[in-house]
């Protein structure tokens, strides 16, 4: 008679081919961690919720103490909990399971005493993985909300009726959606959820973090499942505009003051740029002396007329493939980008008028037009058109964002830049005109700096005993001493590569020359990334008129790796001044309404000569409360560079 299995052992064997695969025999070959803390926690909870293993058994299996595992599971955030030994141990164990072909089990179904339903549908409500869905504003808990509290309650009640969904897991799921500093210290409790569900009224519970988390959870599910916005959602968007429902008007000023006093602000996530989109013409102008008219699409002006048109923004790179090339390309103006030949959309001047994109009749792009016509029949013109205007079609058409590809791409590197360092990005004012010039936002104070014609560059430092060390590949054995010392690791990267220090790498040489590498300790942060513009003679066009061979690193932001936040703009300026590091020119601080009335006036003010000589590229605006930023590009600079 075989020995009796313990309850834990039996449960494990029912889900895993134990004895067939020895996980300890699998070698990960020094792989670096490719999942953040939230993703690992989600897998652990799924395993534990299935009943396949108890928390104690799991801790024993991965070789850590119960205290370490409990501490790791009790935190929340992509990088929160990375210091616990359980993080890497759990990742290794789960990675080995994956390599061995062992799938994570479904959650344990609810007890159904009435015998209704089928156990095969136990995971019906929990089979949507939303971990890869990121919403604009999420990192600062500022996702615009377009549902009333009653509508969210309706969704919560419907979700909890699904087989396999428990209140405890749902509370964890919605708590995981909170990322910002206002996140509660502990996960939501079932009593809090019940209190919210029992309330009544469109705004009853609107200030609750639970309400916000639940809305984000359901919105991510909608996006992941590819479901269109329903009629209620579209009506709410029209009623509340881009900002969504006002959740806590009385605390807005308080939050802004807290941001100022803390000297630490979340990076504002810019609205995702849609290189290819469908637009409606909002204004038509006759161009004297031309057989054309100028039309306005939102804040953009182009030179073709139509009703619904497909708009290609400048910097769109169209590969030389198939009929897209025949339709869009200009054979005599090809460029090579990332090894592909194609056509780059640039600004173009006809007389005194500047075109900032290409548009084509919708019917000429059947990949967009045919599905749109099908949606017209299915959901009606208004809903189908709103849906069409909200989408990006760059991936569908194979269009990429063109970026200057410098020679450093071919030099030795460590791969992509560290994932825990935020890569800055600014929306053009034409893309966010309505949002920025809404009445409440004109009262904000903005830092106004000159936009320099350079390449984004980051110089970073982190301690070798910090959790970030496990997130990057090891340095080569022959790396120069500038990349590490006894306690710290140092790096220099652009947007796409983390580079190895060599004599022929202009980024590293410029970082050394600027003195920023030797002054990283002066910022007072154990783990820090200093970001700025790599400017100089080698930058395409050299619009800043640098002498041959001369380059500079000019700072615009300081990223605190541990908190996942930028230092306040004013503190950044003060630190650079104290340490003798060059900062981008600050033109002043002002409410937007005092500086310009509209986009046209902003564009006029962007014209002129830059502080470093040559035609100024434009301005960058950062709100001092850290919630928004955008750029204004000079039309003269666009004409000069063809960008």
TrEMBL record:
The keyword Ligase applies. Residues 114-123 have a biased composition (Low complexity). Residues 32-103, 144-227 form the DUF7726 domain. Residues 445-630 form the RNA ligase domain. The keyword Ligase applies. Pfam families: DUF7726, PHA02142, RNA_ligase. Residues 104-123, 227-276 are annotated as: Disordered. Residues 227-236 have a biased composition (Basic and acidic residues). Signal peptide: none annotated. Keywords: Ligase. GO terms for molecular function: DNA binding; ligase activity. SUPFAM superfamilies: DNA ligase/mRNA capping enzyme, catalytic domain (SSF56091). This is RNA ligase-domain-containing protein. It comes from Chaetomidium leptoderma.
């Amino acid at each position: 008679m075989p020995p009796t299995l313990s309850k834990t052992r039996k449960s494990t064997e029912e889900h895993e081919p134990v004895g067939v695969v020895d996980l300890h025999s699998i070698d990960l070959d020094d792989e670096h961690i490719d999942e953040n803390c939230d993703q690992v926690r989600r897998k652990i909870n799924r395993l534990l919720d299935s009943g396949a293993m108890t928390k104690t058994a799991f801790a024993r299996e991965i070789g850590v103490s119960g205290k370490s595992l409990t501490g790791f599971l009790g935190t929340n955030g992509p990088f929160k909990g990375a210091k616990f030994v359980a993080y890497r141990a759990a990742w290794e164990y789960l990675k080995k399971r994956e390599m061995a072909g062992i799938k994570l089990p479904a959650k344990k179904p609810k007890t159904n005493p009435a015998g209704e339903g089928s156990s095969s549908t136990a995971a019906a409500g929990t089979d949507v993985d939303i971990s890869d869905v990121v919403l604009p504003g999420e990192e600062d808990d500022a996702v615009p909300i377009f549902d009333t509290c009653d509508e969210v309650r309706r969704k919560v009640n419907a979700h909890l009726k699904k087989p396999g969904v428990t209140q405890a897991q749902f509370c964890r799921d919605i708590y995981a959606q909170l990322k910002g500093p206002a996140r509660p210290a502990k996960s939501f409790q079932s009593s809090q959820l019940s209190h919210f569900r029992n309330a009544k009224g469109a705004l009853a519970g609107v200030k609750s973090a639970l309400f916000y988390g639940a809305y984000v959870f359901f919105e991510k599910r909608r996006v992941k499942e590819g479901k269109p916005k329903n009629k209620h959602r579209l009506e709410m968007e029209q009623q509340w505009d881009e900002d969504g429902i006002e959740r806590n008007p009385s605390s807005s000023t308080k939050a802004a003051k807290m941001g100022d006093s803390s000297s630490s602000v979340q990076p504002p996530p810019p609205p995702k740029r849609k290189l290819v989109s469908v637009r409606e013409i909002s204004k038509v102008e006759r161009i004297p002396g031309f057989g054309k008219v100028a039309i306005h699409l939102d804040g953009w002006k182009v030179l073709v007329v139509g009703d619904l048109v497909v708009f290609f923004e400048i910097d769109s790179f169209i590969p030389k493939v198939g009929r897209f090339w025949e339709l869009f390309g200009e054979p005599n103006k090809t460029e090579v980008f990332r090894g592909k030949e194609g056509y780059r959309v640039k600004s173009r001047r006809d007389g005194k008028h500047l075109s900032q994109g290409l548009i084509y009749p919708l019917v000429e792009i059947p990949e967009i037009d045919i599905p749109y016509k099908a949606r017209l029949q299915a959901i009606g013109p208004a809903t189908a058109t709103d849906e069409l205007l909200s989408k990006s079609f760059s991936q569908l058409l194979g269009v990429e964002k063109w970026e200057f590809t410098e020679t450093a791409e071919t030099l030795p590197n460590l791969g992509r830049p560290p994932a825990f360092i935020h890569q800055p990005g600014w929306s053009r004012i034409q893309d966010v005109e309505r949002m920025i010039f809404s009445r409440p936002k004109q009262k904000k104070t903005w830092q106004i700096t000159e936009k320099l014609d350079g390449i984004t560059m980051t110089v970073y430092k982190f301690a070798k005993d910090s959790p970030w060390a496990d997130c990057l590949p090891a340095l080569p054995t022959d790396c120069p001493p500038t990349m590490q010392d006894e306690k710290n690791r140092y790096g220099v990267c652009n947007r796409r590569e983390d580079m190895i220090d060599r004599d022929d790498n202009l980024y590293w040489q410029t970082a050394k020359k600027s003195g920023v590498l030797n002054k990283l300790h002066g910022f007072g942060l154990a783990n820090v990334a200093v970001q700025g513009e790599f400017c100089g003679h080698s930058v395409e066009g050299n619009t800043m008129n640098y002498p041959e061979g001369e380059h500079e690193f000019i700072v615009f932001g300081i990223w605190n790796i541990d908190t996942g936040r930028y230092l306040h703009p004013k503190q950044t300026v003060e630190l650079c001044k104290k340490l003798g590091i060059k900062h981008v020119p600050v033109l002043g601080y002002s409410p937007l309404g005092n500086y310009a009335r509209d986009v046209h006036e902003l564009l006029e003010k962007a014209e002129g000569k830059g502080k470093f000589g040559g035609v100024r590229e434009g301005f960058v605006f950062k709100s001092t409360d850290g919630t928004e930023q955008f750029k204004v590009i000079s039309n003269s600079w666009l004409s000069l560079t063809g960008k």
